[in-house]
């Protein structure tokens, strides 16, 4: 290995491409007749995506690693624009979750999704801040200076270690807005315990 | 099992923590200025007891409330504004916040990684990108020439204007302002900010020497050769303000201004540039072509910087 290949920018590029490899296996494409988006593998055949990616009554197909799977919506959270899908047979690496309250403005983050139909695209940006619910004071959104487009919805916002900090959901004033991963985890826990009861 | 190295030797994490450290360092010199509705504006502690911000975001004059990085409030007074660079300077005796360190000049080269940091409230916000161009000789609406306007490839957000552009070291590169180029991201470089502040602190306004002529470029054609002029364009006087320096010096409507202080005049901006170098109370020689004769008229510009545009 030459000295050039160990320079910072080479290590940076190598780390970014191994991050893409991880995310390409951990993030699926969600297809419906009326569009779709991205989804994050949550284990046990469960996938988390945005509610607006999977309209009620739509027929769902999930593309994981190039293989198509049938999927059903098993829960919606209108409050947080989240939906939980069940697609038996879909598996992949589970992203470690990171509490967005520990994020510092300026930290580098990556958005992974399928913007404008471009499968498994990676975008780099920085944490802008986190927003709390003005009524309850609870964590509500992760705001990042990262370029998102239709097709990024339901995809992953991860930190430099590949830990999931949020589910990319919308663009406000040019900034990317994500639902915090720990909020999504709370939603999945509630939805699956209801199902078990 | 994750293929991404979880240790801190990961290059992505290395850059990430460098940048968030830079934001934390910058936060120590960014204040929130409460002088408009909706959200406060961002300001930078530029020197001891001196805060700089974007003039259009500070809507009131006199005494305003400023929130320091530790969350406590202090009073500050608006010292001066410059319409051309949209800078406002405030002073506060009790500020007690260490001024922003200056980044080395290399940090503003095109392609450099930079962060825009603001304090639109209690906490700071950041966006990240590169310096995409440096505009030299950019001219503001008021005709003032500005060197070192940095065009940025990064997101503009609420509270962006008046905040610092920050190098990965955490030092300040310039003052952000989205008002220069139709809402796109730009910043005034630190040396430009320094020169404006020096003048604002010593006078309360930026000096703008004025002689009271309206001019338009005209082609001279063969006339240029006949008088041995170095170029074939001059400025024709199309309006003259009564009682102002050009009028009292004897310049007339229709005069062709061909040179100033020995330098040729081809564009109206040449006249503005030449006047801006004339010191207070000094006069300048204007070369005039009138009725077939070339003559020199000595004019003493007047400072009009303190007046509303």
Condensed summary:
The complex is a heterodimer of chains A (197) and B (309). Chain A has 197 residues and is α+β, with helices and mostly antiparallel strands. Chain A has 2 helices and 12 strands, in the order αββββββββββββα.
Task: Give the helix/strand layout.
The complex is a heterodimer of chains A (197) and B (309).
Chain A: H1 8-26, E1 27-32, E2 35-43, E3 46-50, E4 60-64, E5 67-77, E6 82-86, E7 108-113, E8 121-132, E9 139-145, E10 156-159, E11 164-172, E12 175-180, H2 181-196
Antiparallel strand pairs in A: 1-2, 1-4, 2-3, 3-6, 4-5, 5-6, 7-8, 7-10, 8-9, 9-12, 10-11, 11-12
Chain B: H1 11-27, E1 30-34, E2 41-47, E3 50-54, E4 63-67, E5 73-82, E6 87-91, E7 113-118, E8 125-135, E9 138-139, E10 145-146, E11 149-153, E12 164-166, E13 172-177, E14 186-189, H2 190-203, E15 209-210, E16 213-219, H3 222-226, E17 233-240, H4 245-249, E18 256-260, E19 263-264, H5 268-276, E20 284-290, E21 293-299, E22 302-303
Antiparallel strand pairs in B: 1-2, 1-4, 2-3, 3-6, 4-5, 5-6, 7-8, 7-12, 8-11, 9-10, 11-14, 12-13, 13-14, 15-22, 16-17, 17-18, 18-19, 18-20, 20-21
The best one-word shape of chain A is globular
Count of helical regions of chain B: 5
Summed up, the helix count of chain A is: 2
Beta strands of chain A, count: 12
Radius of gyration of chain B: 24 Å
SSE string of chain A, helices as H and strands as E: HEEEEEEEEEEEEH
Helix content of chain B: 10-25%
State the major sheet of chain A: 6 strands, antiparallel, barrel
Write out the strand line-up for the largest beta sheet of chain B, numbering strands in chain order: 1-2-3-6-5-4
Please tell me the CATH architecture of the domain at 100-186 in chain A by its name: Beta Barrel
Distance between the termini of chain A: 58 Å
Strand order of the largest sheet of chain A: 1-2-3-6-5-4
Distance between the termini of chain B: 66 Å
- pLDDT averaged over residues of chain B: 87
* Main interface by residue count: A-B, 31 and 34 residues
Second CATH tier, the architecture of the largest domain in chain B: Beta Barrel
The CATH topology name of the domain at 100-186 in chain A reads Thrombin, subunit H
Question: Outline of chain B, from the CA principal axes?
Answer: elongated
